[in-house]
Every structure is written in structure tokens, then in C-alpha cells.
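This section describes the prediction task in plain terms. A model, or a person checking by hand, is given the sequence of a single protein chain and must write out its three-dimensional structure as a string of C-alpha cells. No templates, partner chains or ligands are provided. The sample shown here is typical of the held-out split.
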Amino acid sequence: MKRTLLRLLRFIGRYRFLLFLSSLCALASVACNLTAPLIVGKAVDFMAGAGRVNFPAVGRMLALLALVFLVGNAFLWFLGYLTSSISYRAVNRLRLAMFRKLTLLPVGFFDRTPHGDTVSRFVNDADTVADGLLQSLTALLQGIVTIVGAVAFMLSLNARMTLVVILSAPLSYLTARWITTRSQKLFREQASTLGKLNGYAEEIIAGQKTVEAFRQEPKALRKFKALNSELYRTGVRSQFISSLSNPSTRIVNNLSYAAVGIFGSLAAIRGTLTVGEISSFLIYTAVFAKPFNDITNILSQIQAAAASAQRLFQVLDLPPETPDLESAQVLHGCIGHVEFSDVSFSYTPGTHLIEHFSLDVAPGSRIAVVGKTGAGKTTLINLLMRFYEIDGGSIRVDGRDIRTLTRESLRAQFGMVSQETWLFDGTIRENIAYARPAASDREIAEAARDAGADGFIRRLEKGYETRISSDGSGLSEGQKQLLAIARVMLANPPMLILDEATSSIDTSTEMRIQRAFDRLTSGRTSFVIAHRLSTVRNADRILVLDRGRIVESGTHRELLKKGGYYKKLYDSQFAGEHPFS
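The expected answer:
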């Protein structure tokens, strides 16, 4: 926890001027609070003894006390404003660093990590850090000044009684630390369980139709209850143990307060202290103990903040995507000659997926890649775009090893339409023009017409200005995929990747899209990954993959005549009928 908190302080360090102002406000506020007990003591002395009350003097003391409290609270308010600004600015930087790091992480991180858990780090964990920073900053700035100031004032009154109060401080600290070390682990478990719960909730909400279709609501509810119960148990245990800290330290402080009262009474009997000075000293005892009580009171929030910060730093500390070589070149004027030479790759060491894979794709060729699930079709695309780095061999584009090219320039040569349609919150126009924001209305409409999307777009109430959400609510799966296809058509890249690009489109629409794809792919190197074999019959070459190896290669007609692996796949879809053969 210490290392994590110190690292958090580095995020705060750049706001030195605000910290300086906060320190001045804390100093002024505490100075007022420490002056108040002296004024109270003076007022008590002016009222000591029957018939000896000096009302004018008491009135002046009360007026002065009111002024001191007014000024002190004004500085306290400004301190709260400054500490809020510091903490939320620091968390703003932390979130920005997180988002920047996510843009640098390899695709493998997103394949392995539930999206809900990542979102939970951005939202819940960052908010927890902000709350903990706010509380700890205020308590720290006020606490240090209060403790030093209270000791100084108490020493001016009575050194022996001050020693009694000071000796209680280590005991309070050790009590709190003993409890803290036992609750910190539980706060880490709580933050981790909350991430799992958020991830599972997002997963079920996104797939609610599937859950209901398979009547799995009871099972989903049972798993959610289990995670929720786990979160409840860790939350209750962590809060219970951490909550022991405040009452335990208060017991120590109350014992100190009682000891001060006894010693003060004896001193008053001996005539070394006045009644007013005893009153002031008792108030200073409470003031001295308050920072310890405040810190132990917010200890659970600080611990929760540290546990959440650890989850954020876990992401920040992950190794980024392998950087481009310093000598990496920018790819210009790509003609689309792609070569795989003896390529080997595995997602998990020791588990081979692609071994000694070789392929030569001539410029302008339309290559279809088919095979059973897990055959390695999508993996080839991931390697071609350097989402993953190969273990052996080489991949060349226009004769140049892609590892010697900048990723940005390499990926700029490809337009991709994947099976999982991605849209964002904005207008349909903005979604289509994502890769070319400066595209004209005519160009956007033309791309939509080529994709077969213009018709349904114009039937919408606001046409191309219709706003859609990130989940594309209000649009069918086919319509969403048409928008994704229109986006690539507008981008007009030299090479194309179509990963199940027509999987959610009906047959009649698919025929229109195929004609559009024929126009789009003309003269461009294209890779078409498909399960629906009717979409690949016009490919220049069809590669049939099995366990990362090419088991067959040829045109649609050639492969059917061979009667091999491809024909079995085709027959499994068309039950022996060859309408396109």
C-alpha cells in the first residue's frame, strides 16, 4: 500500500502551486482552530468565581471567538475546494494515462481481459481513488499542522501533561496499523470481485436475447448471486475490520483525555494552572487527537483507494505493443503483393496453431479462406495486420517484411469489415465517415449506395443525420453491417479484409453486396474469410485451412471436382445441392 500511495502522490506532484495554496489554507484554518481554545480559556477565567463575572470582557472574547471561527471556516472551505481540484485533476490524468496505455496494448490484452473488468477500472476504481485522495489530502494537510500546533500550545501551558498526551499518539498509531494490515488484503479482494461482477453483468446484458432463448435466466441469476454474495462477504469483512480502527484509537485517546483531566485538577489544586487553562488544555487534547481519529476514520477509504489504484497501475505497468523499429519505414503506394514465408505462430507457448505456413498472393487477387472453426482463418489476418507478432518466418507486403514497416502505415493499407460490427454514438454520417471525416456528402451517399445501405438510411426520419448509439439500437444486425461495409467502401483502401462481412445479411441483400464487393475488390488484393461458402465462389483462389495448414487450394469449381475437404464442407451446408457449381 505504501508503494502505491507514493506512486499516487507522483500524480499529484505536478500541482505544486495548488498544494502550496492548500498548505497555506490548512495553516490558516488550523491557526484559527488552535487560537480558539485560548480564547475559550480566557473567557472561562473571566467567569471564574461567584459574582466575579466580567461580562464586557466575556462579550469581547465571544465576539473574537466568532470572528476566529468565521475566518477559520472560510479557509477550511477554500482548502476543500483546492483539495477537490487536486484530487480530481490527478485522477483525470490517471484516467488519461490509462486510456493512452490501452491504445498501446497489444490486441491479446483485450482478447484475454473481460471488457466489463476494464470498464470497471476506468469508472469504479478511478472514482474510488478520487474519493480516497480527496479525504487523505484534506486529513493530511490539516492533520500535520494541527498536531504540531497543538503540541506547541500545550507545551506553553504544561510540559508534563503534554508528555502524557504525546505518549498516547504512538499507541493510537500502532493500534490502527495492526488493524490496517489485516484489512488491506480484503480491500484488494473487494476491488477484484467488483471487476468480475461488472464484467459478468455486461456480458449477460449484451447477450440477454441469447440467455432468454436458451432459457438460461436461472443459471445466469445463480452465477450473479454467487458473485454478488462474494462481493458482499468481502465488502462486509473489509469494512468491519477497518471500522475497528476508529473506536480502538478513540479508546486510547479517551484514556489520555481522562489522564489529562486528573493531572490538570491536581495542578489547579496546587495553583500552577487556572481553571481556564485547564479548559484550554482539555480542548487541545481533543484537537491533538482529532487528526488521528480523522485518519483512522477514513482509513477504509484510503485502503480502498490504494486497492483500486493497484488495479489501475496493473494496466499501466503492462508491456505495450512491441514498438516499431527505429528504422521502420512508411509504406506508400502499396500494390498488394503479400507473401507468407514459413510462418509459425501460437497464442500459447507449447500449443501450436500455425506451423510452416507459406502463401504467395499476387497483387489484385481475391483470396478466400475457409475452414472449420479454430482452423486459423482469423489468425492469419491478425498476423497480417500485426495485431500479433509471428513466432517464426516472415510476412512481406510488396517485398518488404512487415516488421520493418510502421504499424500505422501498414494498417492504413487495409480496410476491414469484421463479423462483430462496431458503431459509435453519433450520426450515421459520422459512422460512415469514420476513416475519412472530411468526406463530402456526395462521397458518403455514394459509398452507402454501393454498400446497399442508402435505401434504409433515407427511410429513417433524419436520414444520414439520424443519431445511433454504440450498440446500434433501432437497427437490425444486417443494417449495422451494411454501415460497416459502407465505411470501408468510403475509405477506399488498396487492400481489403472481409471477415464474415455478410454473416448477418439476408440472401437477397447478400447478392447486392456481393456485386458491390466485386466492384470494390476489382484490382485490389482481398482476403475473404467465410463460413458461408456461397460468398466465396467468385474468389480467384480458395484456401482451405485445417489446424493452421493449407490442405486444399484452388477455385470453387476446381475444389468441388476434387471431391475432397472443401466438397465435404460445401455439402454440409447445401445438403448435396450445388446451385453455384
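For orientation: The radius of gyration is 35 Å.
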